[in-house]
Amino acid sequence: MSKKIVLAYSGGLDTSVILKWLQLKYNCPVVTFTADIGQGEELSPVKSKAESLGVEEIFIEDLKEEFVRDYVFPMFRANALYEGFYLLGTAIARPLIAKRQIEIANLVGADSVAHGATGKGNDQVRFELGYYANNSNINVIAPWRDWEFESRNDLIKFAKENQIQVAKDKIGESPFSTDANLLHTSSEGKILEDPWVEPPDYLYTRTKNLNDALNEPEIIDIGFENGDPISINNKILKPHQILNELNIIAGNHGVGRIDIVENRFVGMKSRGVYETPGGTILMHAHRAIESITLDKGESHLKDTLMPKYAETIYNGLWFSSERIAMQKLIDSTQIKVAGNVRVKVFKGNVIILGRKSPNSLYDTNLVSFDEKGDYNQKDAEGFIKINSIRLRKNKQ
């Protein structure tokens, strides 16, 4: 039996029921940990709710800067996309939460940690791999895999029996489940489970419908250094401020919506609707500055590596040796990725208008049709003939 448990606590119905269930089942102190990673919700009620359930040690921490600086930006250096579309907004948040939860467990002398992820999803894997990577001896409690409750109605009944506050909009079946942080908002389940059914517009909370988006385009200048954005319109900002500003700009122009069916790590297909407004601008801008600062070999190597890197993060292996090795290679390519990208944002589109860099490899004299430069066009004849040898041979 556990002597003290640290619970990843959101203050919602699920984790509030989990909190009480842990207290009753394990008869030991439960410490709550709530990470502010830019989910946009008011977190002040979280403390009072935990206190009402008898919690004496409550941790509510602002991790927005660490989240963007040490997790989001390194991932964006790789241009990571899972299965061609997903910018990994939920996946990249879990390692930070898990690491800090373990640090708090060590601080308060807890021997166990608990989370509210279900037994069907990816997050249980991500949390628990993160726990074990940071403390191989920690005891992990996953109530959704162990308890007797089978439905949301069961949770509501338990909550009422134990005087747990239940928000009015949580009574009955929720239309969909959501997860949010500074990078994205995800929605899945319930009415979204039929992949043929169009998502209702009220689902979207961070991006305007194109009919309501601004009618005038917005042009912004994004400055980069070592592969990371450092400024917007020549104003130097902290990492979390940059992402927040890009979120506002993109959201007003309806940028960043995707509706996909993805392959979960646990083996099933899942339909998810994601809003990643600022991240979508950042992805386009980062590729644009790389296009003039990376050598062809570096660029193509990164693109070859990217799907593996993205899948590694998706599967919860942020702390794995292979992710760290890939990150070192990726970061080594970013030393000269510096300069500015001019972007137009309008009606769901991100349009690159220009890019410049003091480290640019783009040679106007070499590519111009109007100048000879150092390139002898006659050399191309031999190059083509050498590359045609195997094609000619295969024809025989």
Structure write-up:
With 396 residues, the chain is an alpha/beta fold. The chain has two domains: 5-64 and 89-174, Rossmann fold, CATH 3.40.50.620; 179-294 and 333-356, Argininosuccinate synthetase, chain A, domain 2 (Alpha-Beta Complex), CATH 3.90.1260.10. Helix content is 40%, strand content 19%. It contains 14 helices and 14 strands. The N and C termini lie far apart (74 Å).
Number of helices: 14
Shape: elongated
Beta-strand residue percentage:
15-25%
Give the overall pLDDT as a whole number: 93
Within CATH, the superfamily of the largest domain carries the name: HUPs
Unreliable stretches, pLDDT < 50, 5 or more residues? none
**CATH-defined fold name of the largest domain:** Rossmann fold
Strand order of the largest sheet: 3-2-1-4-5
CATH class of the largest domain: Alpha Beta
Ends distance = 74 Å
Largest sheet, described in full? Answer: 5 strands, parallel
What's the structural domain tally? Answer: 2
**Integer-rounded radius of gyration:** 24 Å
Q: What string gives the helices and strands in order?
A: EHEHEHHEHEHHEEEEEHEEHHHEEHHH
CATH architecture of the largest domain: 3-Layer(aba) Sandwich
Structural classification: alpha/beta
Instruction: Report helical residue fraction.
Output: 40-55%
Count of distinct strands: 14
Describe this protein with a few key phrases.
396 residues, Rossmann fold, Argininosuccinate synthetase, chain A, domain 2, 2 domains, 5-stranded parallel β-sheet, 5-stranded antiparallel β-sheet, 14 helices, 19% strand
